[in-house]
Specification:
The structure is a homotetramer of 224-residue chains. Chain A is of the alpha/beta class. The first copy, chain A, is 44% helix and 16% strand.
Chain lengths: 224, 224, 224, 224
């Protein structure tokens, strides 16, 4: 994953049902091409393979249930997301919390499979724990700010800086992302100044009246 | 859903990772075209949209997490599977058991959205309960026979007949499917004679050396 | 379980932490002795054995995780609640929803062990499903009214009457309870007139300034 | 928690249903009195309050569901186990895995409430993660050895030593316990030599023909 980066989590918003996912993915592809910004997209689970086959943007899975192939109706295996075209996964998003043992097993399995891992966390101590298991990235997002109007970089820049520092004390191999309420180029600029290597976006782009315009401004901000 | 029918659950077997799902879906499309048999397929979740866009076989989702659109990273909404092209869903498969309240809510939501519902059950009493909530189909599969070598129609034909009768006592609007270990045309013939309107298949086809040959024989058996 | 009955669910309110559970259980014992009303209590899980050993009121478990004895740290088995002195269990409370297959297995296991079962449900269709599995009682509680100020008997008497009728169509062996917002003798009178054989109480008594006075009035109402 | 220590997890074995829990707790009390060994017991959840009121051995909860008091039928709150007499909790036992975010929240809440925390882990990386969240103890138990006949100290002493070292690199404030298959004084001796401050026991004592004799030998071994 090239950094600094924008990770755009499509979540399960109605806007990205069906063709909506592919449309937004194509916007991301264009913005990436025009700005050179590193943009990673996480489409809805059922659109993962279709989107990955149609666009030239790195695709991550929003989640993976199982790290071993087996007969598990309705669940998602690591091998299936890799075969679908994903090159990384989000683990433990606040809307999809995972067991500590599962997180460790997923990180280990992804390392063997060559998939990039982003472990989401909600505070400094959980970020330390995530870092101790050796993922590629820790993405710290205060849950109370997710989906809201105020960026974590405005509401609580201290927690971002302290997370970067705390993770650095555990290991120098894990880099930090942040997110929650991030909506414009200024938020991104502050996030990078605080020591992170990128941001997680979702509602600010997916639910925007003009997702292309919003994403373009942030992508420009990222690479300046 | 046209009956009698074969519902082929791809599960998460390695054989249907990535392009494997589309290949098997195309085999189903061909067998359906050649035999006229009603075949419904349930591809891996991450291949759902891609498969539904590429083949002309009815596609059902192996599962749905949520019946309301909302921001839920890594989960799957009813509207997303419908928009992806699914026309029905499997609910409560033995590998994906659901709460009774969730099953009821899913059935109700699917009815409003025009999606077909198949509620999987493990015995007669659970089949009665499922039927009482008004899905389109109840699919009774003894868990100890799932994925095994002996068909439910051989191991325990009585439980199939009794399920058909018990469901009929609850309502005349719900039809019965069965499954578990079903592997050949003879098993299907017996299943239909016992009063069901079709079978759930999985490993017998997905893991077969020659899935096309196996499915073809069963499709022929279904329509004879 | 002698009917008509009041089932008092202590839940996990701070008022019933530690000795609070035993105090409230003794109030129930006194009210039962004075009025002759049938009162069943469901203390916090960790107080179950202690309360059951100290008072002469029927004690039900708020929940049971497992119906087979096994090594499962932190979970609760059917045999352990029976050995602790419980004579019945609440299954599938809205704050503790269970899988349909688990509900069926628990009902069956309780029948073998001689424990009374109350399956909680949230609407008419779920009540039909619960009844179809043959518990002793179905307790219908609209979730939006639980813990609130308006009794289900006032807010929606029709759903109570319709539940009694719908359950009766499935089987004559299962009786109906109701609950949610029930707070006084008048609510109980209406509940019985609508065809139920009792009510589930919780916050209206547990959080009352004078639980004894509140429960006494309702117990008197129950037996009038 | 006085160290070195034996933590005896009663789990949900049939032997500790009902009065069995109290009987075993009294054996622990006697062995502690005779040997001076520090013994902590974790009775079945429904016996927690009763046992804590009857014996003078430190009692820990096998698990806690919630760290905030609220209306949650069938679940267990931190305040309820503390009020019942518990002075610590097991978190994330292999039979009761928890989300990383929940583990962090429980540790933080226990620290505020003055309860001792033992976080169970399954390997070195998970132990590092647990340590990074600042519990009092990390108890590393290879899952494949739990409940078995071969002690972790025999099967894999290296993983115990490496866990002690790895945890020490994260923080000097967290001490290490181990467990899985520990059955005699020799196993305990090795566990202490490898740098742990105690062991988790379960089946080796609970299911023994003579639990008193088995525990006595291990307690003597602990304090020698």
């Amino acid at each position: 994953m090239r950094t600094p980066a924008i990770i755009l989590n499509f979540k399960t918003y109605a806007q990205v049902d069906g063709d909506g996912a592919l449309s937004l993915a194509r916007i991301c592809e264009e913005v990436q091409a025009e700005t050179g910004a590193s943009i990673i997209i996480c489409p809805p689970m059922v659109e993962l393979s279709r989107v990955a086959h149609e666009v030239k943007v790195p695709v991550f899975a929003q989640s993976v249930d199982l790290w071993e192939t087996s007969a598990r109706t309705g669940h998602t295996t690591l091998s299936s997301v890799k075969a679908a075209g994903a090159t990384g996964i989000l683990i433990n998003h606040s809307e999809n919390r995972r067991g500590m043992a599962d997180i460790e097993a997923l990180i280990t399995a992804c390392r063997e499979e060559g998939l990039t891992t982003i472990v989401c966390t909600n505070n400094i101590n959980a970020s330390r724990a995530a870092a101790a298991m050796g993922p590629d990235f820790v993405a710290m997002e205060p849950p109370e700010l997710i989906g809201g109007d105020i960026s974590v970089t405005t509401a609580n820049p201290g927690i971002v800086r302290d997370t970067v520092e705390a993770v650095g004390e555990i290991t120098s191999d894990v880099r930090v992302l942040t997110g929650a309420g991030v909506k414009n180029a200024g938020d991104i600029k502050v996030a990078l100044e605080l020591g992170t290597v990128g941001v997680l976006l979702a509602s600010g782009v997916v639910k925007a009246d003009d997702p292309r315009a919003v994403l373009m401004k942030m992508a420009v901000g990222l690479v300046q």
